[in-house]
Amino acid sequence: MLSRKGYSQELAKKARRENFPVASRLLPRRHRDHLMAVYGFARSVDDVGDEEPPGDRLRLLDEFEADLARLYDGETPRLRPVRALAPTVRECAIPAEPFHRLIEANRRDQSVTRYETFDDLLGYCALSANPVGRLVLHVFGEVSDARLALSDRVCSALQIIEHCQDVREDYRRGRVYLPEKDLRRAGCPDGHLAATATSPPLRAAVAVQAARAAKLLGEGEAIVATLAGFARTAVAGYVAGGHATLAALAAARYDVLGRAVRPRRLRLLAAWARVLMTTRSSDPALQRLPSA
Q1: In the chain, pLDDT over 90 holds for what percent of residues?
Q2: What CATH number is attached to the domain comprising 60?
Q3: Which residue, of 87, 103, 135, 231, has the fewest CB within 10 Å?
Q4: Phi then psi for 114, rounded to 5 degrees?
Q5: Which residues face 114 on adjacent strands?
Q6: CA 184, CA 166: separation in Å to the nearest integer?
Q7: Class of residue 197 by CB neighbours under 10 A (exposed 0-12, middle 13-18, buried 19+)
Q8: Same domain for 146 and 276?
Q9: Are residues 183 and 289 in the same domain?
Q10: Given 3-state DSSP classes, what are the helix, strand and coil percentages for the chain, each rounded to the nearest 5?
């Protein structure tokens, strides 16, 4: 078992591999700590659903669920990622539901390995990705119905972008997150997913998902204009990570099997600056949104 220091170091290493700045040093320490606590829970639950022996995964996810119940009942959690959440849940008044939805997403991964349509995939994103954005808004005390709706678009986009990057890794785990309908339309059977080179049909199928993610990201980007201060900086970073990764996928011509497609730091920073400088809301009411 890792020490507390070892756990923090391992978590920071994983965060650096994400497409976006999880807890930028531009933010105050209290915000970074809360964001890393949220990320630590989400990452740990994902690791259980992906990395543990298949026969143990549902049991371990049940343990996370039970430990969340302890936390919200005022008891001391047993698992380190849940214990680390205690100050964040208390200080930011975070409800339990988003955490439970993240666990449910990983339960679904154990039985649902393919999605027929893009709408089906969005239903999965509502469990696996959208709760994270909602947790971030709670961390900054910036929750409102309108912001939650915009955040969901951003987070679904980020999840779909990640699926585009991880086609090979997901397939090796027995999962396909590219909608079956789109794979058939592109003429892309499973053999293309198992290949060492990205075929033109697979590139076409990935490009379709990237275009859909770009549309969602563009729709959700208006959330940045409704925020100020450190919340605006953080959320702009997440949006910028999506834009930078989409640009990297396009530059690679959607070759997701022959290389690891990741955004370069300079591209991310440039996108971050652009989002901060140019994002404007088309709805003046959004700029006056109260926190819930």
Answers
A1: 86
A2: 1.10.600.10
A3: 87
A4: -145, 155
A5: 176
A6: 19
A7: exposed
A8: yes
A9: yes
A10: 70, 0, 30
